[in-house]
Amino acid sequence: MAAAITLAAEAPKLSSANTGFMLICSALVLLMTPGLAFFYGGMVRVKSTLNMLMMSFISIGIVTLLWVLYGFSLAFGSGSGFIGWNADWLGLSNVGLTELWPGYTIPVFVFMVFQMMFAIITPALISGALADRVKFSAWALFVALWATVVYIPVAHWVWASDGWAFKLGVIDFAGGTAVHINAGAAALGVILVIGKRVGFKKDPMRPHSLPLVMLGAGLLWFGWFGFNAGSWLGNDDGVGALMFVNTQVATAAAMLAWLAYEKIRHGACTTLGAASGAVAGLVAITPSGGAVSPLGAIAVGVIAGVACAAAVGLKFKFGYDDSLDVVGVHMVGGIVGSLLIGFFATGKGQSDAAGVFYGDHSFDQLWKQCAGVFAVLAYSLLASAVLAFLLDRTLGMRVPEDEEVSGIDQSQHAETAYDFSGTGGGVVGGSTAQALAAAKNKKVDA
Question: How far apart are CA 395 and CA 219, in angstroms?
Answer without folding.
Answer: 35
